[in-house]
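Cast an eye over my tokenised protein here and flag anything odd:

===
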Amino acid sequence: MIYELRGKVRSKSLTSVVIDVGGVGYQLQMSINGLDSLPKIDEDAHIYTYLHVREDILDLYGFKSKKERETFHLLISINGIGPKLAITILSGIGPSNLENKIISGDVKALVSIPGVGTKIAKRIIIELKDKLIDLKDDSIDFNIDGANSQSFSDVFKALISLGYKEKDAKKACIKLDEKNELDDKLDVLIKKALRLLSKL
């Protein structure tokens, strides 16, 4: 598995780039957004990669960030979406924006991307929506700076001990913090958190 490449940009086309790594030129297929992010010819570049193997052909794909590559992996996990279509999708919309459209179930926005019909758009939403929501929940940072961070942690731990899932406990704690209610006593905070959880 080729994880990443660091080398000089030798040439660019509308769909690919050639990177010189120690005298060896690697051609990578990239999204338009990825290609636009690359430096000028003969300048150093750092590209994350994915090697797609099929029968007697090896296709190397490049990405400007780990997030773009992770989104690519999610897309090609869907039946009917191959690497080329996944790159086309990432050319039409950035990873973060794509995630938001999928989570909100915006079929119209996905269909506006070249190569994506209604059937594929609905399949993307059905298969990736829950996965993306879980990924967002798991990435929530609950180590808040300041005096209230201990209260935040205490409430979170208390909710976990009561049997609540981590992602739900985090949501409740974040809502308490957004309302500036973390100055109350712990027993009061837990009661407020439980009320919030009953509405999730």
Summary: The longest strand covers residues 44-54. Strands lie at 4-12, 16-21, 24-29, 44-54, 57-63. Residues 118-138 form the longest helix (21 residues).
